């Protein structure tokens, strides 16, 4: 019994030592943890220098004066300014997308700008096309809108575009831009201001008109519209600011880094084409490039039963690309 009691006492003593050791260890670790986490708080004063391994996020600069289509944007209104700020943060900080837009802008704006000017449409509407499609020729929205200007089929046909099994001119940038001008001019005849015209391009003339009547206002910036249309003009304005002046927002791209304008020759056809691969090869390009420069052609052929006249773009690749067609089968 005495030996057993001595053993118990020794066990209790050793257990007490272990417990005290654990507590002491916890206190030391806790102290280190507290100190390591509290130190930055003490240093995070406004005067603290930013070290090289810290992330720094900055806001974007909103100009004191801004216009859309020569119409003043009321930036003095807090809701307008904050709406623009939201879209600016999105556009300016989506770096890969912004860089791609800047690189592609020269190629597409070169086509769009003269058509807008010819039709008396303000040049700022080129940014509407960018907002609609991101310069993707054959993009299709969830609702079925197609092309650079995102026309629904009914609206496309109403504005002079051909859409059938073989041809979809919503993907023909020149013709689609001309159709967009027709819509924009009709809308301007109704609203008398270009900002409402742009809003109507997104929500439809009827949709914007219903809200204008219900809210007794013809001013886009005073209207409560659906989420997409409420952001729409500000998205266009953000693209105008960033893409129009990239260096100001941190994007430095040399002119030679922008995608080049590929010269094209035009070939007119008023009959059928059995096979676009052979047609492309006969014009010294491949099928891939032929379809890239003529994205409005839906099939691998053209039956053209009505014998309409179509004009195809044949890229003059020159220094940009070379082809060897001597043996296209791959045989040696």
Structure description:
- The longest helix is centred in the first third of the chain and has 42 residues, at 2-43.
- The radius of gyration is 32 Å and the shape is globular.
- The protein folds into two domains: 67-257, Lysozyme; 264-320.
- It has a two-stranded antiparallel sheet. It has a two-stranded antiparallel ribbon with strand order 3-4.
- With 332 residues, the protein is mainly alpha-helical.
- The model is unreliable at 1-20, 25-47 and 326-332 (pLDDT under 50).
- It has helices spanning 2-43, 78-93, 95-118, 126-133, 153-158, 173-191, 194-203, 205-215, 227-244, 276-282, 287-293, and strands at residues 67-68, 71-72, 264-269, 310-315.
- The protein starts with a helix and ends in a 17-residue tail after the last strand.
- Helix 2 (78-93) crosses helix 9 (227-244), helix 3 crosses helix 6 and helix 4 (126-133) crosses helix 9 (227-244).
Number of helices: 11
CATH architecture type of the largest domain: Orthogonal Bundle
CATH first level of the largest domain: Mainly Alpha
Query: Could you say which structural class the secondary elements and strand pairing correspond to?
Result: mainly alpha
Poorly predicted tracts of residues:
1-20, 25-47, 326-332
* Shape estimate: globular
Helical coverage, percent range: 40-55%
Say what the CATH topology of the largest domain is. Lysozyme
Biggest sheet, strands in spatial order?
Answer: 1-2
| Proportion of beta-strand residues | under 5%
Mean pLDDT equals 86
Largest sheet: 2 strands, antiparallel
Distance between the termini: 101 Å
One letter per element, helices H and strands E, the order comes to HEEHHHHHHHHEHHE
Rg, alpha carbons: 32 Å
Number of domains: 2
Number of separate strands:
4
């Amino acid at each position: 019994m005495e030996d057993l009691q001595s053993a118990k006492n020794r066990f209790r003593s050793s257990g007490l030592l272990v417990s005290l050791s654990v507590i002491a260890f916890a206190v030391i670790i806790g102290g280190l943890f507290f100190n390591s986490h509290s130190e930055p708080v003490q240093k995070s004063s406004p005067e603290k220098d930013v070290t090289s391994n810290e992330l720094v996020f900055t806001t974007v600069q909103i100009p004191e004066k801004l216009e859309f289509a020569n119409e003043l944007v009321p930036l003095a209104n807090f809701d307008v300014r904050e709406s623009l700020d939201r879209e600016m943060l999105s556009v300016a900080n989506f770096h890969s997308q912004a860089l791609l837009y800047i690189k592609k802008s020269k190629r597409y704006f070169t086509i769009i700008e003269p058509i807008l000017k010819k039709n008396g449409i303000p040049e700022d509407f080129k940014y509407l096309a960018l907002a609609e499609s991101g310069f993707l020729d054959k993009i299709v929205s969830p609702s079925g809108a197609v092309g650079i200007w995102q026309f629904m089929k009914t609206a496309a046909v109403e504005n002079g575009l051909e859409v059938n099994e073989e041809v979809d001119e919503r993907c023909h940038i020149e013709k689609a831009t001309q159709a967009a001008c027709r819509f924009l001019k009709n809308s301007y005849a109704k609203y008398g201001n270009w900002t409402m015209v742009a809003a109507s391009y997104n929500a439809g003339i009827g949709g914007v008109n219903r809200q204008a009547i219900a809210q007794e206002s013809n001013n886009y910036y005073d209207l409560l519209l659906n989420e997409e249309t409420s952001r729409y003009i500000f998205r266009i304005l953000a693209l105008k600011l960033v893409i129009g002046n990239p260096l100001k927002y941190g994007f430095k791209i040399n002119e030679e880094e922008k995608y080049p304008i590929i010269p094209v020759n035009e070939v007119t056809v008023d009959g059928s084409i059995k096979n676009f691969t052979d047609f492309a090869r006969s014009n010294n390009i491949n099928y891939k490039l032929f379809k890239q420069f003529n994205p409005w052609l839906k099939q691998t052929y053209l039956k053209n039963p009505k014998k309409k006249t179509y004009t195809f773009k044949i890229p003059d690749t020159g220094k940009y690309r070379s082809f060897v067609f001597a043996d296209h089968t791959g045989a040696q």
